[in-house]
Design brief:
Strand content: 5-15%
Shape: globular
Number of strands: 21
């Protein structure tokens, strides 16, 4: 490992303005090192500096820890679909074509160890037991160190249930000694360190602070997740219980939850968030390009108030996947649907269009792989006003037509069915496909789902379904404070742990807390929803996917449960050479390569296969 990540540089005073603490802002550069490290104000400043390293220089900082970690957690999942290629390293995160280089990977690694060294500095220098305030500050550093090691281990190490004794995690650096150059510890050892740090943090922290800072409950909440990942279900339940029973947090009401991204972690009305990395309006988004280069800038274009807009700021190239929309659209009033918006080109138009995906056109020379890939391309065709017919049209230059253009048109009947329980009408159609060499048309082998709407805006044929769960804080563009833990996860942690313990009643009770808030009593699960094809765990994990989408959970939730990442849906992860339609939990691609420059700097670091 490169030694430079172990050298602690005192954080400039500038970053302290990002946090609302009344501290003495001494010019660190003019103070002796021991004095800086020993004074209470300086130690507090260093603690705030550790938060600041995780945040980076602002919401658009492409090198910040949190913005890049979320990319590694969400982009390889099944909740997103990229509408094109990009030269940004995020493309290789998204399509599982791993690289040993790339600034996003390197930033996660280097920012993590800078934070760890910063935490080690405070832990070594601060005197435990001197005061409640000092103990709480030390506890925050144990929390941040444990949190970072947990996330690092999940990005660069295999899931805990896949032989944690042999599989490698990350180097555990627990000192500030520049000569201490640890090699990679096992996954088991990394988790042991995480648990130790978080327990120590919970024991030391006693002050009540806003969700912008680590607290005892934040440590307990993360411990619940850590134990869930370790499949220690009883402890996962116990720590979730501690947070829920603390009385400090409550699920937001349904209408308030629809506005959840617009709350700050400090808002008195935000009873949901346990801990988030706070971004401050003005201090963290001072420039005109901030809204383009944020993490959420890939998810949507938004106006100045953070609402989706086809003329707004942001790239808006990574959309909600078909499979995520399938489940969030099951109920017409699911609050989670508020975070996904179908972008209509012209709201004043009365014309209807049907969006579907499948093999629309082919030629005799195409390989079966090409045909399979083209079966995941979107099409948008006009639909009759009464929603009973869809009209397909091709303009072809056939080989035997002397270059003249031939128009082929087909009218296709639309089927419909209303779900008696949810009231949602589902449409389907069996479209035609055309042979572009001779103009012959045949029906697809089976019906496909049809989504009927006004004409949607597209990018490279991909309908724009903007994601706004990470935008609009305080009504300010793409401003957002990334959520680390919130109370809804505690109910879901308990539900999953109870399900794995075979406790059907408690599992359903906890998952239904989330469904009641998001949809209503009518959507509660009962034991009748558990069938030979749909297990209790299936129901819980589906709800976890619905509720925690775009918050940094999905990739890990799939693989730690020995599930296959199913990406059989449209997106440019299926374009190019060697597309991954499915990724098995044991595949090498599940784990990221360590940054190559760290291997070159420390030759005894073992690279992932």
């Amino acid at each position: 490992m490169n030694k430079k990540i172990y050298i602690w540089t005192v954080i400039p005073v500038l970053i302290l303005s990002l946090f609302s603490c009344d501290i003495d802002r001494e010019p660190f550069e003019s103070i002796e090192k021991d004095q800086v490290y020993s004074s209470a104000n300086a130690l507090e400043a260093l603690t705030l500096g550790n938060y600041a390293i995780l945040k980076g220089k602002g919401i658009a900082d492409g090198y910040s820890w949190v913005n890049n970690f979320y990319r590694f957690a969400e982009y390889p999942g099944d909740n997103v679909a990229l509408s094109g290629t990009t030269s940004d390293p995020l493309y290789f995160i998204y399509n599982y074509h791993r690289r040993e280089t790339g600034y996003r990977k390197e930033s996660v690694w280097s920012a993590s160890y800078k934070t760890i060294i910063g935490c080690n500095t405070v832990i070594e220098r601060a005197e435990e037991g001197a005061s409640e305030e000092i103990d709480h500050m030390i506890g925050q550093n144990y929390f941040l160190r444990g949190m970072v090691y947990f996330y690092l281990t999940n990005v660069f190490g295999r899931p805990y249930n896949q032989d944690p004794i042999s599989n490698l995690g990350v180097p555990l650096k627990t000192t500030t000694d520049i000569n201490d150059q640890p090699v990679r510890s096992t996954v088991e050892a990394c988790y042991d360190q995480v648990v130790s740090d978080l327990k120590k943090a919970a024991a030391l922290m006693s002050l009540k602070q806003s969700a912008s800072y680590a607290t005892k409950e934040a440590a307990q909440a993360l411990l619940s997740r850590v134990y869930l990942y370790m499949e220690d279900n009883d402890n996962a339940i116990a720590y979730a219980d501690s947070v829920i029973q603390s009385g400090r947090f409550n699920l937001l009401a349904k209408e308030d939850f629809k506005k959840y991204p617009r709350f700050t972690p400090d808002d008195d009305n935000n009873t949901e968030t346990i801990f988030a990395l706070r971004y401050v309006d003005g201090a963290d988004n001072p420039g005109q390009w901030d809204d383009w280069y944020t993490f959420s800038g890939m998810y949507a274009q938004v106006d100045a108030q953070g609402y989706p807009s086809l003329t707004g700021a942001g790239w808006g190239e990574l959309y909600a996947s078909v499979t995520y929309r399938d489940i969030v659209e099951e109920w017409p009033d699911d609050a989670r649907g508020s975070f996904v918006t179908a972008m209509v080109k012209d709201k004043s138009s009365e014309d209807l269009f049907g969006v579907w995906y499948g093999l629309n056109a082919f030629n005799d020379n195409e390989t079966e792989l090409v045909k399979k890939v083209n079966g995941f391309l979107f099409h948008q065709d006009p639909v009759s006003a009464d929603r009973t017919k869809m009209y397909q049209k091709w303009e072809l230059d056939l080989d035997d037509a002397d270059g003249a253009e031939t128009t082929i048109e087909k009218e296709v009947p639309i089927g419909a069915q209303v779900n008696e329980k949810t009231g949602v009408t589902s449409y389907w159609v069996t479209p035609y496909q055309v042979n572009t060499m001779n103009g012959e048309t045949t029906l697809l082998d089976a019906p496909v789902r049809l989504r009927i709407n006004k004409e949607l805006a597209t990018r490279q044929t991909y309908p724009k379904y903007f994601i706004t769960k990470c935008s609009g804080q305080e009504g300010k563009g793409h401003l957002w404070s990334p959520v680390i833990t919130r109370i809804a996860e505690m109910y879901l942690n308990r539900a999953e742990a109870y399900a794995k313990n075979g406790d059907v009643g408690n599992a359903l009770a906890n998952v239904n807390e989330i469904r009641r808030r998001a949809i209503g009593v009518k959507a509660e699960y009962t034991s009748e929803d558990i069938t030979p094809k749909v297990s209790l765990l299936d129901l819980v994990l589906k709800e976890r996917r619905l509720e925690l989408a775009y918050e940094g959970h999905r990739k890990f939730d799939v693989f730690r449960n020995n599930r296959t990442m199913d990406r059989n849906y449209p997106g440019t992860h299926l374009r190019g050479n060697d597309p991954y339609f499915e990724v098995e939990p044991t595949a090498n691609e599940v784990v990221e390569y360590l940054p190559k420059k760290e291997i070159l700097a420390q030759s005894d670091l073992i690279q992932n296969p």
